[in-house]
UniProtKB/TrEMBL annotation:
EC number, as in UniProt: 3.2.2.31
Assigned keywords, A-Z: 4Fe-4S, DNA damage, DNA repair, Glycosidase, Hydrolase, Iron, Iron-sulfur, Metal-binding
Molecular-function GO terms, alphabetical: 4 iron, 4 sulfur cluster binding; 8-oxo-7,8-dihydroguanine DNA N-glycosylase activity; adenine/guanine mispair binding; metal ion binding; oxidized purine DNA binding; purine-specific mismatch base pair DNA N-glycosylase activity
Catalytic activity line of the entry: Hydrolyzes free adenine bases from 7,8-dihydro-8-oxoguanine:adenine mismatched double-stranded DNA, leaving an apurinic site
Domain HhH-GPD: 35-186
UniProt protein name: Adenine DNA glycosylase
Family: Belongs to the Nth/MutY family.
GO BP annotations, alphabetical order: base-excision repair; mismatch repair
The organism's taxonomic lineage, starting at the top: Bacteria, Pseudomonadati, Bacteroidota, Flavobacteriia, Flavobacteriales
PANTHER family: ADENINE DNA GLYCOSYLASE
Amino acid sequence: MIFSKKLITWYLQNKRSMPWRETKNPYHIWLSEIILQQTRVAQGLPYYMSFTEAFPTVFDLANANEEEVLKLWQGLGYYSRARNLHATAKYVANDLNGVFPNTYKGLIQLKGVGDYTASAIASICYAEAVPVVDGNVYRVLSRYFGIDTPINSTKGVKEFKELAITLMDHEEPASYNQAIMEFGALQCKPKSPYCIVCPLQDSCEALKNGKVDILPVKIKKLKIKKRYFNYLVFFTEDKKTIIQQRVGNGIWKGLYEFPLIESDAIDTDAIASHAVFREMIKDKEYEIIPHQQEAIVHKLSHQHLYTRFYIVKSDIPSKINEDQKIVDYEEIHTYPVPILLGNFIDTFFQQN
C-alpha cells in the first residue's frame, strides 16, 4: 500500500472528532485554521466554539468592532492573528460578497493566510490537490524519509514542500492532508512517538537508523530578549483604576494594560521618582505597594517579560493621557487585555 493510502487508512480509524471536520464551509474551516496556528487543538477548540457562536457568519465577524474580536481572542496570544482575521472577514464580506476564494492562489492572497492555511482550505473545501506542510508534516516526512535538512531553513522549506507535492493524494486530497497532520499530532509525536504500533514502521528511515529522537532538525532559535514591565495599578476608594491601550507595532497592539514603566532594577522609590508616575500623580497623596516580591516571568516566542504590579493607593489624577481611560473595577473585565494582565485582574479585582 502506498504512503498516502496507509495514512488515510490510519486516519479513518483514529481521527479525533472535531466540529470543523463536520463541515466544508470555508468560513468555518478558515476560522479553525487561523485559531489553530501555533495553538494546540485542546486550547483552540473552546475559542473556535466561542467565535462560531458569537459570529455565525463572516458578515457577523466583519461587523464586529476590533475590541470585541480581541476580547474573544484573549489568551490565545499572537494577537496579529486576530487583527488579520478581522481584516480578512471585512474584505470577504464587503469586497467578495461573503464568498471566499475557491482556489489556493486566491486564498493565499487573503491577509493572514499563508501557504499552509491556503492549502488546508483549498483541499478540504474545494478538493484541490495542494499539500499542507506544518510542524506535524515536517516531523512525519523528516523521520519517514530520514531527511536532516533543517526544517526552518530556506533550503528545508523548499525541499519539504517539493516532497509533499510528490506524495499528494490527488483522489482524496482533503482526507490525505488531514491524515498526515493528525498522524503527526497523535502517532508520530515530537516526544515518545508510538513507533511500535506505527503502520509505517517497516519503511521508516529514522526508526531503522535510530534517529527518531533527533529528527526533524531545526536551526537554533534567535536569542531571547528580556524586558522588564512595571505596571501602576491605581486603586481608589470609589473603586476606579486607569488603563491604557497599547499602540505601535510591538506586542499586544490594540490590547489594554495599566500605565507602564519599562525599566530594570526598579523599586518603589524609583517608581515614585519616575517621570511617568510624577506626570500622573502631580501633587496628590499616594502610597505605592508592591503586589508581589518576585517578578512574574511571561514567556513569548522571542521575549521574556519580567513583570511586577505596583498598587497605587491614591485619588485618580485630574488629568490623564489621551490613550488612557478611567474605569470602574466592574468594567475592567470587558476590555481585551493580554493573558498576563487577565490573570492579575481575575485575582486582584475579585478580592478588592
